[in-house]
Amino acid sequence: MIEFAEVSKRYPNGQEALKKVSFEIADGEMAFLTGHSGAGKSTLLKLICLMERATSGQVVVNNKNLNRTSRRKIPSVRRNIGMIFQDHRLLFDRSVFDNVALPLMIAGYPHREIGRRVRASLDKVGLLSKEKYSPIMLSGGEQQRVGIARAVVNKPPLLLADEPTGNLDPELSAEIMHLFEQFNQVGVSLLIASHDLSLIAQMHYRTLVMKEGRLVQDQVDTITSSEEGSDES
Ligand SMILES: Nc1ncnc2c1ncn2[C@@H]1O[C@H](COP(=O)(O)OP(=O)(O)OP(=O)(O)O)[C@@H](O)[C@H]1O
To answer: What ipTM describes this predicted complex?
Structure first.
């Protein structure tokens, strides 16, 4: 699903944000990306959705070599990726429904299909009853769930999340993670950048650790039998 081979990124001001980063995320895998502020997590996610380009090395996503993707083809690459941001980037002058519908409207889906898909997506995140609300009337956790509904509305095989629980308390953060697990259980691949080490530790997924632009640890978490026994979810 995602392959990085010796990927480096130097910004125009000379800042080296990624240094020879190599890893692979398999189809259907869910993994976390962590590390100190400025370690390069957001840059890594931006290379995957072509918000930035690698300076050297190779990035392959969904079997497409992004080094060779022309600007014209960027929208078709992005259609296969759902992006979730910490600040969720909702439009506050539009309804919840319209916010979630936006990617489908841009892609030119027929009106009826948009209605069907938006409602299915809102249902998945538990917000079907609030489709007419303005996002401003929702709590922080609900707003983040609208952002998630928007990211999954065209059923992308890959979700990228950049600090998706950064503004949420532990309980709401756990709820969001549970939603991600549900998407993963139906085959969606996820890469989630997060500072929240205690949340990551509770989740027992592979964790990529970055430090000063380098991938310094790639750890597959295995649940011990005693933890498994105490886990009721
Ligand atoms: N557009 C840019 N131009 C120049 N330097 C940048 C740019 N974006 C990021 N950087 C720098 O690249 C490095 C990595 O930044 P990045 O945002 O990827 O880190 P991060 O791990 O996501 O940090 P945080 O957790 O604080 O969001 C930092 O030193 C940052 O200042």
So the answer is: 0.96
pLDDT score of 226 more than 50: no
Residue 58, domain member (yes or no): no
| Residue bearing the CA closest to ligand 1, atom 29 | 38
15 lines ligand 1 (CB under 6 A): yes
Reported as a single tens digit per residue, the pLDDT across 163-186 is 998 878 888 888 889 999 999 999
Cβ(137)–Cβ(168) below 8 Å: no
Q: Spell out where the chain has E strands.
A: 2-10, 16-25, 30-35, 56-61, 64-65, 81-85, 158-162, 189-193, 206-211, 214-219
Number of folded domains in the chain? 1
pTM for the predicted model, two decimal places? 0.89
pLDDT in tens, 79-102: 899 999 887 789 999 999 999 999
Structural domain contains residue 48: yes
**Measuring from atom 11 of ligand 1, which residue has the nearest CA?**
17
Pocket test for ligand 1, best of 13, 34, 42, 87 (most atoms within 8 A of CB): 42
Kindly report the CATH number assigned to the domain that includes residue 192.
3.40.50.300
CA atoms in the 13 A half-sphere facing the CB of 208: 24
Identify whether 196 is part of a domain.
Answer: yes
Is residue 6 situated within a structural domain?
no
Q: Give yes or no for residue 40 having a pLDDT over 90.
A: yes
Range(s) of the domain holding residue 198 = 29-53+74-230
